[in-house]
C-alpha cells in the first residue's frame, strides 16, 4: 500500500470539506434546522454504504448527536424492509425511495439524497419526486456530482476524489458537521 497516496487522498477530501464546502454545509444545516423548527421532517436515502450513512444521519437526529435535547423528526428511507421489498417487487428497485417521498414528504420537508457517484437511479428518482412534492433536496455526492447534482436544490459534493472510500470519508465529516450545526442552531 502506498501510505503517502492514501494520506494525500484522505487529506484532500478533508481539506475540501473544511474549506470549500463549509459555506454550503452551513447553509444546508440552517435549512434543515429551520425545517425541523417549523415542525417538518428530514428524510435521507442512499444505497449500500450511502444507505448506512443515511441511517446514521437519521439516528443522530432522532436520538442525539452531542447535546441532550428533544428528538428531531428524521427517517432513513432504507430501513423499512416491507416497504422496500413490496415496491421492488410490485414496481422496481428504482422506485423504492421515490414512492416513500411521495407518501411521506410534505412541502417544506428536507431530503438528504446520498450517492457517491451521484448516479444511483433510485436516489435520483427520489430527488425528482421531492421536487414535485415541494421537498427541498440536499445532494451528498462525489466526483462530478453525477445526475443527482442537477436534481437537487443544494449540492454537497466531495469533488476532490473519484475514489469511493475517499468520498465516503468526506461524507462522514459532512454528516457530523450537519448534525452538530443543527443541534447548535436548534438549541438557540
Main attributes of the structure:
8 helices, 5 strands, globular, 56% helix, alpha/beta, Rossmann fold, 188 residues, 13% strand
Structure description:
- The chain is globular.
- It has a five-stranded parallel sheet, with helices on both faces.
- It starts with a helix and ends with a helix.
- It has helices at residues 3-18, 22-37, 49-62, 81-90, 98-104, 121-133, 146-151, 164-187; strands at residues 42-45, 74-76, 110-114, 136-142, 154-158.
- β1, α3 (49-62) and β2 form a beta-alpha-beta unit.
- It has one domain (3-187): 3-Layer(aba) Sandwich (Rossmann fold).
- The chain has 188 residues and is α/β, with parallel strands linked by helices.
- α1 (3-18) runs parallel beside α8 (164-187), α2 packs across α8 (164-187) and α5 (98-104) runs parallel beside α6 (121-133).
- The mean pLDDT is 97.
| Largest sheet composition | 5 strands, parallel
Full CATH superfamily name: Glucose-6-phosphate isomerase like protein, domain 1
- What is the distance, rounded to the nearest whole angstrom, between the alpha carbons of the first and last residues? 47 Å
SSE class: alpha/beta
- What overall geometry do the principal axes of the alpha carbons give? globular
Number of helices: 8
**Strands across the major sheet, in which order?**
2-1-3-4-5
Tell how many strands the DSSP assignment holds.
5
User: What letter string, H or E per element, gives the SSE order?
Assistant: HHEHEHHEHEHEH
CATH-level-2 architecture: 3-Layer(aba) Sandwich
By CATH reckoning, the class would read: Alpha Beta
Beta content: 5-15%
- What is the residue-averaged pLDDT? 97
Query: What are the segments in which pLDDT stays under 50 over at least 5 consecutive residues?
Result: none
What is the rounded Rg? 16 Å
Question: Which fold does the CATH topology refer to?
Answer: Rossmann fold
What's the structural domain tally? Answer: 1
Oligomer classification: single chain
